[in-house]
Write the C-alpha cells for this entry.
Amino acid sequence: MELKDQNMDKFIFAGKSLNEIEKFMIDNNQSKFRAKQVFNWIYLKSVMTFEEMTDLPLTTRNFLQENAQIVSIRMKDKQISKDGTIKYLFEMEDSCFVESVLMRFDNRANLTACISTQVGCPMGCSFCATAKLGYKRNLSASEIIQQIILIQADTGLKVTNIVYMGQGEPLLNLDNVLESIKIFRENFQIGARRITVSTCGIIPAINRLADMNFQSTLAVSLHASDNETRKSIMPVSNKYPFDSLMETLKKYTEKTNRRVTIEYVLIKDINDSIEHAKKLAFAISRLKSNVNLIIYNPNEKSPYKKPIKENILKFKYILESSGKKVTIRLERGADIDAACGQLSSKTKKI
Ligand code: SF4
C-alpha cells in the first residue's frame, strides 16, 4: 500500500479495515501490533488526534502526524433543536456540503444517526428540500463513514442505529453504501438489524439487495397509493411504476424473509384522504411490511401543507384495521430544518 492515498496528501484512516491499517503500518516500517491500537482509538473511542492515542510511542504518533489523517471531511456547522436533535453540516475536501442528523429518544437508549449518501439528489421528489439542490456527486464509502466518526467525536457518545435517509438516494450509490455498511458492522460493531437503508424505489438495486439476501432493513419511500399520485410527486415513478415496485418488493420480502418498512409522508390534499388510505391498505395487503407515517414538514420552498390531525388519525386507523402495524414518526428537529425532507444544506457557513 502506498504511503498516501492517490488523491490525498496523507493516508486517511476513516473507512479502512484492520487489515488495511496493518498493511499501511508494515509498509512504512511501523509495528503491525500498533495497527489494532489505532483501529480501536478511531472506531471505538472516537478520538480525532494522534496525540490522544496515549498508548502509542511518541515516535509512532509523530510518524502518523506527518503521514496520515483520521478524517478528510470537517464539521462546518451544528444546530441543536429544542428536542435535542442535532443537525450537522459537513464539508467535503472538494468544498461540497452534506448534512447529517442525530436523534435521541428520551425513552430509549438508542442514538440514531441519519446520514447522507450523495451531495444533493437527482430524484426530484417535489416535496423534498434536498431535491432543490440538484445532484452533484456520490459520496465515497469513507465520506459516508466519516459522518458517524465526527458525530461520535463531537458528542462523545456511541451511535447505536444508522439510517441512510439523509441527502441523496442511497441505492444510486449502492456499492459505496454496501461498503460502508460492512465497515459499520465490522469496525463499529453496529449490527445489521440496527441499520436501515431508505430508497424511493430503484427497482434494479432492490433486486440486487434481494439476490444478496440483504439483512438490514429496507425502507421504501412510497408516499402514494397509486401510480398517478406517485408520478405527480415522485418522478421516479415514471421510470419504475407503482405496480412494478410493489411486485419487486414482494419478491424482495420472499427472498430475504425480511419485512420492508413503507414510508408514507402525509401531505394535505395530495395523498391523505380516506380513499388513499384504503388504496394503500389494499396495495400492501400481501406485502410483509410495517408502515411509518410521516407528517409533512412544510419548508419555505414548497407549496405543500401539513395534513389536519383528523385525517392523520383516520389514515392510521384504516391501515391498522387492515392488519398492518403503523407508527407515526415523531417529528424531530423541525425547528432547525432537520426533519424528514428538510435537509437542504442551507445553514452552510463558508
Ligand atoms: S426524498 Fe429522498 S430520493 Fe426524493 S429527492 Fe429527497 S433525498 Fe432524493
